[in-house]
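Hi team,

Filling in the usual template for the complex we talked about on Friday. All components are listed, including any nucleic acid strands or ligand strings, so the model treats them as one assembly.

SUBMITTER: L.P.
PURPOSE: interface mapping
COMPONENTS: three
RESIDUES: 190
SEQUENCES:
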Amino acid sequence: MDRVLYSVPVATPDGEFGATYSALGLCGLTFPVSQPAATLSPDRDRRRARPCSGGTALLELPPRIRNWHAELTEALAKALAGREPRPLPPFDLSRGTHFQRAVWQVLRTIKRGGTMSYGEVAKALGRPGASRAVGSACGANPIPVLIPCHRVLGAGGKIGGFSADPRWKLLLLERERADWRGAQGAGWQA
DNA sequence: GATGTCGACGTGG
DNA sequence: CCACGTCGACATC
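RESULT (copied from the run log):
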């Protein structure tokens, strides 16, 4: 069952994310809209945590979902601070195609601070030449940050694209101290 | 060297 | 059909 049953705001130091849950687990995570990434800077000063605007919504959640949400809230805060996001709630990725799920699986093997190129991911799937399709699959990732699509860069260390906002990609990489600057240092752009 | 163009790939509009 | 979070090869200045 991949239907979205609950949509819940997630308060973090970087603004209010949005989580959606199905009966199987977390099936979606969206970046804050109220705090545009345009105001983000790669420096260290953090934003104040905002109270959850969901109001009484949280109280209406079934215990199981509420537990997942508590785990997610903590995991997301850790991830945004560049630390290991654990424990995690279960993910419901049943909406992805076979290829997309295979891609997301590879993404989850990229260690914090590490990166892969779209081409390398394609190669890891036994599909050299599908690098572009990998890019599309990354863009279709329903749970950014926790499924680290931001750790996939263009060949030669170029920053590549990011559906939400490239600033988030840069910020996340900064926070995990990723060694993403390519071999030639100059090979990246905003 | 610095640019263009082209084809391959999976998915959704 | 087309347009994408790409890449590498090759052509041409």
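MY TAKE: The two ends of chain A are 39 Å apart (CA to CA). Residues 117-119, 122, 128-139, 149, 152, 154-155, 159-163, 166, 169 of chain A lie near DNA strand C (CB under 10 Å from a C1').

Thanks, L.
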